[in-house]
Amino acid sequence: MREAWSTVYKIGMRLLEAQDAFFLARRSRKDSPHTTAAYRRDLAGITSLLVGELQRAAGEIALGEVTSGSLRAAFGAFADSHAKSSVLRAWSTWNQFLTFCVAEALVAGNPMAAVARPRTPALTPKPLRGEQTPEELLTATAAGASRARDPWPERDVLVLALGLITGLRSAEMRELTLGSLVGRPGERRLHVRGKGSRERSIPIEAPMEKIVENYLVSCRTRFPRRARGTSAPLLLDRRGDAIGRGALEYLVQSCYRSSGVHDRVPAGASLHALRHTFATRLAEDGANASEIMALLGHASLATSQNYIEATGREQRSAAAVNRTYQALARLTEQD
């Protein structure tokens, strides 16, 4: 019976055709371009490994050949060169894709249940270490600590501030346009489109307005002949083009090194450490989960709650009642 089922689907829809149908069906969901690009990368990455496993060109692979065995081999190879988070994301993408195929009666069942995946790691915030680290980072960068051949401190400070003051993700920073800054002076807000095309409006204060203005003045100095309308990208590279993902990551890492705080950046955090620092300080200063959720654009209240659980004043209060502190207090009183 299984051989007969396999024969039916080997002559049925091709894998790449099914993937095209998957994205066509998702168009009405209005996924953000970054979400769609991530899905495409995950599908393409595993498909390329299926090519080697099945010894067939990608365009020749039938959907029925994508079995639990071939997927286990492909994901095993994928895991050898990717982090747990990447494997989890790819597993989720393929699970959604094959669930769609089942719903459309393109396959009889979803084989992803038989493909092992890493355990979901605990969502632990990774802020910059050190109470004054954010201030040191901003101060050193503004003072021109960068050793780049063509330093641009106005832009570098703006990027750091967007992470530390507004908590923007990398993709959100790159999507900002000149028209994203709205409102009257003194009442400015940043209009941001985040994950899942969810939009939010983040208030900014006068110091942040000044940072933005200093950067825009530097842009006009660097590129005097380039007209820029409200749809033009806010963050530029040194050629005057929209800054790319890799260039933005490199910029932040360079600021860490030149400011001497690189040893206070949690492993694997990089630019995202700025966002985590923003959220952690919100929690430490008493913001509730709903406020953190609104400012950071989280889809789930549970994600925002993580910051409160990790850094909230309740934990500090609980630790403070440790009876050993009483002994320490007596010792210090004797000094």
Automatic annotation (TrEMBL):
<dbReference type="GO" id="GO:0015074">
    <property type="term" value="P:DNA integration"/>
</dbReference>
<dbReference type="InterPro" id="IPR044068">
    <property type="entry name" value="CB"/>
</dbReference>
<feature type="domain" description="Core-binding (CB)">
    <location>
        <begin position="13"/>
        <end position="102"/>
    </location>
</feature>
<dbReference type="InterPro" id="IPR011010">
    <property type="entry name" value="DNA_brk_join_enz"/>
</dbReference>
<dbReference type="InterPro" id="IPR013762">
    <property type="entry name" value="Integrase-like_cat_sf"/>
</dbReference>
<dbReference type="Pfam" id="PF00589">
    <property type="entry name" value="Phage_integrase"/>
</dbReference>
<dbReference type="GO" id="GO:0006310">
    <property type="term" value="P:DNA recombination"/>
</dbReference>
<protein>
    <submittedName>
        <fullName>Site-specific recombinase XerD</fullName>
    </submittedName>
</protein>
<keyword id="KW-0233">DNA recombination</keyword>
<keyword id="KW-0238">DNA-binding</keyword>
<dbReference type="InterPro" id="IPR010998">
    <property type="entry name" value="Integrase_recombinase_N"/>
</dbReference>
<dbReference type="GO" id="GO:0003677">
    <property type="term" value="F:DNA binding"/>
</dbReference>
<dbReference type="InterPro" id="IPR002104">
    <property type="entry name" value="Integrase_catalytic"/>
</dbReference>
<dbReference type="InterPro" id="IPR050090">
    <property type="entry name" value="Tyrosine_recombinase_XerCD"/>
</dbReference>
<feature type="domain" description="Tyr recombinase">
    <location>
        <begin position="123"/>
        <end position="320"/>
    </location>
</feature>
